[in-house]
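User: Teach me something about this protein's shape.
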Amino acid sequence: MGWLGLMPHTTTLLFFAIATLVLTASPGPGVIYVAARTLSQGRRAGFASMFGIESGEVVWIAAAATGLAALLAASADALTVLRYGGAAYLIYLGIQRWRQSEKVETPRPAPLGRIFAQGFLTQILNPKVAVFAIAFLPQFLDPTMPVLPQVAVLGVVYIAMAVVVDCSYVLGVGALSGRLLSSRVAQRRAGRIAAGTYVALGMVAAASGARLSR
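Assistant: First, the predicted structure itself:
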């Protein structure tokens, strides 16, 4: 049959690509992190955060292929810890960003390596990606075919869609960052907006986790 015979059908790939585009384009912790980093430090930081985000998504896709996602789905406690961990980390980022925005001097840019690592951790603890790996991706798998090749192909499609979406955010926000950050007042406002968004997302994620654990 060969490798091509183990791939999902073309119709399945098309529906998956459309659904993934809608899913990744909707605002979530990953999108907000990329946009906030781009707004505060420009496109280089935005792309560094994007690569960190995508690396975290690769880990989740690998987890789905190896069965870790199924293990988390079977353990309500593990999934609850993941949700609250992601919520707490988002709130922490928000508090840190708010403190930076209150400084009178211009904050020193964070190293690209740190931005990448924060993006990676943000997506590892992102409940939205967890739900994707546990509940969304398996819906497009054919149980009569080997799982690993299907997950690999769907994973490539997902990462491709995510890269397109995140690049659009980086380029779009980057085009505005020069104007928005041309003054101390604009810097402070941008920092507060980013910080408030982080905290709000963390609280929503925590509330969602509490509701789902009941």
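Now, about its shape. Residues 9 and 125 are 31 Å apart (CA to CA). The mean pLDDT is 75. If you'd like, I can walk through any region in more detail.
User: That's plenty for now, thanks!
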